[in-house]
Amino acid sequence: MVRGASSSVKIGASSSAKLVIICISLLGFALIADFLYASSSSSSSSYSSSLWNSQPSSHSSTLVVPLNDKKKKKKRVLADAYADLDGPDLKWEKMATAPVPRLDGAAIQIQDQLFVFAGYGTIDYVHSHVDIYNFTDNTWGGRFDMPKEMAHSHLGMVTDGRYIYIVTGQYGPQCRGPTARTFVLDTVTKQWEDLPPLPVPRYAPATQLWRGRLHVMGGSKENRHTPGIEHWSLAVKDGKPLEKEWRTEIPIPRGGPHRSCIVIDDRLYVLGGQEGDFMAKPGSPIFKCSRRMEVVYTDVYMLDDDMKWKVLPPMPKPNSHIEFAWIVVNNSIVIVGGTTEKHPETKKMVLNGEVVQFNLNTLKWSVIGKLPFRVKTTLVGFWNGWLYFTSGQRDKGPDDPSPKKVIGEVWRTKLKLNDV
Ligand SMILES: *[C@@H]1O[C@H](CO)[C@@H](O)[C@H](O)[C@H]1NC(C)=O
Ligand SMILES: *[C@@H]1O[C@H](CO)[C@@H](O)[C@H](O)[C@H]1NC(C)=O
């Protein structure tokens, strides 16, 4: 089941095949370049810092350069992949703020309700309940508890329109370990049931319902950092498992957490994401988060009848932390905010402040608007022509794209899609 409405226009088979070939060759080149970049910079960027403020490490003091060079560098920097993209300004309206702020929470839209789950309130406190936003009267309400054993962040989540499937994730605050426990919520009765646990736990795996099966792939492995490429599925119907065990499926070409995973017109898409993530500091009794090398990417993959991964045109810039930041409208995928590659000089995490559209009729990407601020892991819905987002972590300000405040604000704008 998809989030929001979708139409049934098909991709032209022969032109998309050509595009795919072109893209595979481009991707091959990009991967090599990426790998070279990653191996040359890995030694200098595995520093630790607070997850909250992503301050640069003491290593950054070694980056002192003469003023002239600095200026030159800055010019080059602005033209690079992590810079903000131009796009039309949108008129945003601020709505009722959520009962609690959330980072790395999860959200599922069913009709006029946005079910908002879990998430960090602060780095040392995680939520274990659900809040509901009603798009018809634009109010929050209906709070209820999650099962005690359910993960609090980095969840895989999807709905069939009534049942919400909740797979694995991180259990507890800071950078604690994951759980493989998996649940299903009946949104009508608000009853929770167990599902067979994932074979091994994952952080923020790509999760979707496709052809009667719950698919889970990628994510980070048990250490929170190493990308997993494994892919499993479980037959489910009306909130019940039809099998006792997960089935192994074709691995995804590139692993890692925090991607959009969407089924449209019987095809499964996986967009963006990253390799690497914060890890618990070795020996820390509170599993204190420590920053590690991350590579954020633009990759778009698709599975169809062939059950072989196809490569589609890449996103306009690297984008991660978008697992619940998408909707599907009129055969286009719309993605809100996210994170891109870190700043090469300050090494700070860089947030995205664009709304981007992937038109599946033309397989073209475009920037359809700017957000009121840059934001990551935001939770998105679409109702009655309005695009909504809530929660996540926003930037320090217009001139500083690094993450700061965890928010509960709700914003909306009239969605205007690009025909191209
Ligand atoms: C949302 O609000 C409207 C207007 O108050 C109400 O009629 C509707 O039942 C609410 N939706 C749900 C699912 O409670
Ligand atoms: C989607 O398509 C319908 C029918 O053509 C149109 O009325 C609507 O405005 C479109 N929605 C958006 C957001 O463009």
UniProtKB/TrEMBL annotation:
InterPro entries: Kelch-typ_b-propeller, Kelch_repeat-containing. It comes from the Eukaryota. Transmembrane segments: none annotated. This is Kelch repeat-containing protein. It comes from Crotalaria pallida (Smooth rattlebox).
